[in-house]
Amino acid sequence: MTNYIIRRVLLNFLVLWFVSSMVFLGTHALPSDFAEKRAASSINVEIADQARAIAIARKELGLDKPLYQQYIRFMGELARGDLGTSYESNKSTWDELGSRIMTTIELGGLIVLVSFGLSIPIGVLSAVKQNTWIDVFLRTFSILGVAMPVFFAAIVMSLIVLKFSLFKIDVVGNPHFWTDPGGAAKLYLIPALAGGVSGGAGIMRILRSQMLEVMRQDYIRTARAKGLNDSRVWIRHAMKNAMLPVLTVMGLTLGGIVSGQIILESMFNIQGVGRFLFTSLNNRDFPPFQGTVLLIGVVIVSVNLGVDLVYAWLDPRIRFT
Description:
Layout: H1 2-28, H2 34-42, H3 50-61, H4 67-79, H5 93-98, H6 101-128, H7 133-147, H8 150-163, H9 181-214, H10 218-225, H11 230-267, H12 273-282, H13 286-314
Helix pairs in contact: 1-4, 1-13, 2-3, 6-7, 6-9, 6-11, 7-9, 8-9, 9-11, 11-12, 11-13, 12-13
């Protein structure tokens, strides 16, 4: 187990190096940079030549250096745990994220709760009620969830709320559950439901198919022959074994939830990490964008490593070598 964890951690470092390199090259391949924005807002009588103003701004920001030197500097900062400093606010990325991370955790936690809280019981129920009207309804619901993009689901839910005047959607404030529970619930309700349904729909379908496969196994028939009630057979025996392949999908679903959360935060003006990421890229404020993407990558690879380790807890037959 220890050797496996060490190998996976080393592999994760390689993955993160690749991600950071790609995001660095990708941002520098864009047709404009922050120097052009700064020059456009600071042209005065002394510097009337825009090209000269852009050159001065690039020199101040260090963007005039060769790309390989910028890359070496970028990787050196990452090695020291420095995620960069914003060109626009002159604050470190850690400071910028510090004021937004709790908002993202609130919304992300709700999306995960809705996603897994709906998908697991619905997947099990759909398998248990195979070919009944309940199964048909739940399968239709899961297919719609898979086919419907998260932004479209959020738009439909918003239209329903507005059409029937269920509540007011406040996209101006930034409430938290510990300061304004009612306002936070109204703000997060639609994004949490839209993200949860879109993220959990695939899990519902896979869990259903795995449950049906497991429930046909000999040890399930043996458990029933011993007189165990159906609920105990479904939960203790069938579901535990059906969850193994589902765990992989759940780990990948978290990555989808992160990308979907960026869209949802931008749609509802939620001042979280996702909106900050979008705004940074839009403003060509590359350092915080690059650092935030890398941090998200760290979270995703760590979650997938955790999922692999949970395999051994669910199935003692699995051994890591």
